[in-house]
Amino acid sequence: MRCGKGFGGRPRSVRVAYAPHIPKRLPAAMTISAAVWDAGPWPCIIETGPPETVNSSGSSVVDKLTSEARDDLGFVELGSVAKIRIGTVTGANSFFTMSDDDAAEHGIPASYLRPLLRSSRELPLLRTESKDVVNGRMLVIPAGESLPRRVSNYIQAGRRRGLHGRHHTKKREKWYCIPDPVPPAAFMQYMVSDTPFLRANPDGILSTNNIHQITFDADVNEMERAWIELSSYSSIFQWSAEVHGRTYGGGVLKLEPGKARKLLVYSGAGQSLPDHALSNILDLIEKGDKASAVAAADAVIQMAAGASSEAISAFSECHRALRDRRIGL
Predict the structure, then answer these.
(1) Domain containing 151: what range?
(2) 280 Cβ neighbours under 8 A, 6+ residues apart
(3) Helix, strand or coil, per DSSP, at residue 13
């Protein structure tokens, strides 16, 4: 059920709370604007995951807002323009992933190493020449060639640790040879505590399976890819992530590949991206000012899509309410 107070007459905002049964006392409430109340009327207090919440007309609130984003603003599901997969499954990250110092210690030649994003916390670093600031390396040993002595010694040391018998490694013809990994066009967090987003991968960097890899469809051009990346910072994308993701301990949001396909993105409708719009947002993310980055993305999307400020504000309020509830604010 839903309990509200402060409505009636012509209020500017409404205090709303959610409870799965009739409460003995009024539960903790959140404040939403009258415009958001009228639009839903309760879009900010839906449960995350597959929603059953309905509005007064009997339709799903999530369906209603999703339709508005698609039909009125031109957003589409990420899965309609890209493939989403988990990163490379090595079967033994302690063996296949390392730093430059580790590689030097074991005598691994640079020709056997590929730049690696080891954690989603490094995503803000991915800019031009990003491989120079990402210090992770993935060991990719070609099958069927003679190996340097120190590489052979490293393989034997891994075998003595029993790595050859692990679930994934034992399926390979040679346990230490990962099938040649293909760098994705972009990355996205698998699990995140605050703001999920897409980040382009300009330098052919790899990742392990703790980060999603995005491969755009062949007919999605560079400008559309830039728009999609920018739109991932918008309140509409953030709202869809809160709706389709699952919440775990500590307020962590987890986005499985199947759910990530449902996230809403904007490809620009044939327009050119405003000069410096994306780079300005990336600067804000790099500085840790995620709220300003979302606001900046919303402003660009509002102008490009011809949206009203009320429409963008409704998604923004819904996103903040769901996020704040997830992280316990």
Answers:
(1) 89-171
(2) 296
(3) strand
Q: E-strand spans in the chain? A: 2-5, 13-18, 30-33, 76-77, 82-86, 97-99, 113-117, 136-139, 186-189, 191-192, 198-200, 206-207, 211-216, 246-248, 252-254, 264-265
pLDDT > 90? residue 153: yes
Least Cα distance to 229 among 257, 258, 201 occurs for: 201
Residues 80, 100 share a domain: no
Number of residues in the chain: 329
Radius of gyration over every alpha carbon of the chain, rounded to an integer in angstroms: 23
Half-sphere exposure of 163 (CA within 13 A, CB side): 19
206-234 mean pLDDT: 96
**125 near 132, Cβ under 8 Å?**
no
Q: What phi, psi does 205 have (nearest 5°)?
A: -80, 150
156: in domain: yes
* 60 pLDDT higher than 70: no
pTM flag (> 0.85): no
pLDDT of 39 over the 80 cut: no
3-class DSSP state for residue 327? helix
**Which has the minimum average pLDDT: 36-45, 94-103, 258-267?**
36-45
**Residue 293: which of 303, 278, 314 has the closest Cα?**
278
Same domain, 189 and 281: yes
**Cα–Cα distance between 18 and 11 in angstroms, integer?**
20
- Interhelix angle for 235-244 vs 290-305, to 10°? 110
Output DSSP code: residue 72: I
Domain total in the chain: 2
Q: Rounded distance, CA 110 to CA 270, Å?
A: 42
Question: What confidence score (pLDDT) does residue 135 get?
Answer: 81
- Tell me: do 95 and 80 sit in the same domain: no
